[in-house]
Specification:
With about 350 residues, this protein is α/β, with parallel strands linked by helices. It is built from 13 helices and ten strands. Strands 6-7-8-3-9-10 form a six-stranded mixed beta sheet, with helices on both faces. It has a four-stranded antiparallel beta sheet with strand order 2-1-4-5, covered by helices on one side. α3 crosses α5 and α5 packs across α6.
């Protein structure tokens, strides 16, 4: 019995400049009655950096999850280099798409090097028996993975901390480590979810240079970010999501000058805004509820008038009683009015 322990040559082939790497068509994601993403189309070409921006809750991370197999879109399809992606995250990674997360997800108790080696698992094929027997092929594959991991750590500037625990790294370096781990899978497309969140201006500039260097390696990049200066300096194209729908897509100048984008970020309504019909329905319901609440049976003025009516004095009460007695006597003997 023999066991093949050689490293697989499964890395994505070098894309042709201008070739469409990612093609998302009509992606819609619903959670029960809530539509988080509605009919979004987006393409990313080889050698291109594309930005995805929008207010909080616009559906950006949900869209990322649809692209990477964490969610299965309710409608639409996602293609990578012309092939429909399988709805499994590990298969999406094997196909050539890697990502980082909005909240850092490292193996805190593993070393920096070990974290990057985890990212190599889709590019090797050591199985159970090769790990048990540990033959020459296994050691060659392990050395190749370690060498590649060290190259990536050097690329992001962490090679001198390869034996440090991931949890002991500063925040900015943990972000770098997450990018290095994603690059270890040899992707053709890298998805970055808010890579500069929580960073100071110096760390943001370093990250910007790192993304440019990744692009120069031939890897297309799709990035979500709230730092507008970072996005507009970095990206060839920018798409804007508002309430789950793509509002506009274009170069930085076009997007920055669009009044709808400015209004969306300031929370101001604009014509044909996504979700305008739903907002109108909510406003109408609220107005009806307020009108119903402001229409009580008795007005306060009526209640006060009733409460302030004075009671009869004793003299007035006696006069009223005498008058009633006279009326009773007269009424009791009809036809005898002159008999006294």
């Amino acid at each position: 019995m023999t066991t093949d322990t050689t490293t697989k040559d499964t890395s994505a082939a070098a894309p042709v400049p201008g070739e469409t790497v990612l093609d998302a068509r009509g992606v819609t994601m619903r959670f029960g009655g809530l539509t988080a993403v509605r009919g979004v189309d987006l393409t990313v070409n080889a050698g291109e950096i594309v930005g995805l921006i929008g207010p909080n809750g616009a559906g950006k991370t949900t869209f990322f999850n649809c692209l990477t197999g964490l969610y299965v879109p309710t409608e639409g399809e996602v293609r990578f280099k012309g092939e429909v992606l399988p709805p499994k995250s590990f298969k999406v990674t094997a196909a050539g798409i890697a990502r980082t997360f909005q909240n850092i997800r490292l193996f805190a108790n593993m070393t920096v090097l070990e974290n990057v080696l985890v990212g190599r698992h889709t590019r090797t094929k050591e199985g159970f028996w090769s790990a048990v027997l540990r033959g020459p092929g296994y050691h060659r594959a392990e050395k190749a993975s370690r060498d590649r991991a060290m190259e990536l750590l050097e690329f992001v500037g962490l090679d001198h901390k390869s034996e440090h625990l991931a949890r002991n790294l500063p925040y900015g370096e943990q972000r770098k480590l997450e990018i290095a781990r994603a690059l270890a899978s040899e992707p053709g497309l890298l998805l970055l979810d808010e890579p500069t969140a929580g960073m100071n201006p110096q760390e943001t500039r370093v990250t910007e240079e790192l993304v440019f260097a990744i692009r120069d390696m031939g890897i297309a990049v799709l990035v979500i970010e709230h730092d507008m200066r970072f996005i507009f300096n970095l990206c060839d194209r920018v798409a804007v999501l508002v309430q789950g729908e793509k509002l506009i897509e274009g170069d930085s100048t076009t997007v920055q000058g669009d009044e709808r984008v400015i209004a969306a970020y300031l929370g101001e309504p604009f014509e044909d805004a996504p979700g305008a019909e739903e907002v109108a329905e909510v406003e109408a319901a609220e107005a009806h509820a307020e009108a119903a609440a402001e229409a009580p049976a008795d007005t306060p003025a009526d209640a006060d008038a009733t409460a302030e009516a004075p009671a009869d004095t004793p003299a007035e009460a006696d006069a009223d009683a005498a008058a009633e007695g006279a009326e009773t006597t007269t009424d009791a003997a009809p036809g005898k009015e002159n008999d006294r």
